[in-house]
């Protein structure tokens, strides 16, 4: 199983949707709350190639985007192979 990290804020509905999808698939993930630590948000932005919105999701260190991106990958049947 690959390492999954998700940068979030507590009140973000897109973060909740992404976490719900990962949980539904039985995927363990590390959640990083950037709401109270500007340095974490800067680090997230650098890792996410300039994207500042949350969530930002990484699989084995590779940025895959946000909630819409991960749901699209799932719909296209591409998410499961990325997580295998």
Automatic annotation (TrEMBL):
Q: Which domain of life is it from?
A: Bacteria
Q: Which organism is it from?
A: Fuscibacter oryzae
- In UniProt terms, what function does this protein have? Has a glutathione-disulfide oxidoreductase activity in the presence of NADPH and glutathione reductase. Reduces low molecular weight disulfides and proteins.
The entry's family comment says: Belongs to the glutaredoxin family.
Q: Does the keyword Electron transport apply?
A: yes
Keyword Disulfide bond found? yes
Can you say what this protein is called?
Answer: Glutaredoxin
Glutaredoxin domain: residues covered: 4-62
Q: Which SUPFAM superfamilies match?
A: Thioredoxin-like
Spell out the InterPro entries in the cross-references. GLR_AS, Glutaredoxin, Glutaredoxin_subgr, Grx-like_ET, GRX_bact, Thioredoxin-like_sf
Gene Ontology annotations of biological process type: cell redox homeostasis
From the UniProt record, which GO molecular function terms apply?
electron transfer activity; glutathione disulfide oxidoreductase activity
Q: Which UniProt keywords apply?
A: Cytoplasm, Disulfide bond, Electron transport, Redox-active center, Transport
């Amino acid at each position: 199983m690959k390492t999954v990290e998700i940068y979030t804020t507590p009140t973000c509905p897109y973060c909740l949707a992404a976490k719900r999808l990962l949980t539904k698939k039985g995927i363990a993930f590390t959640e990083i709350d950037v709401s109270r630590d500007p340095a974490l948000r800067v680090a997230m932005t650098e890792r996410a190639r300039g994207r500042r919105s949350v969530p930002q999701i990484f699989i084995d260190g590779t940025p895959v985007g946000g909630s819409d991106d991960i749901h699209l990958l799932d719909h296209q049947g591409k998410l499961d192979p990325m997580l295998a």
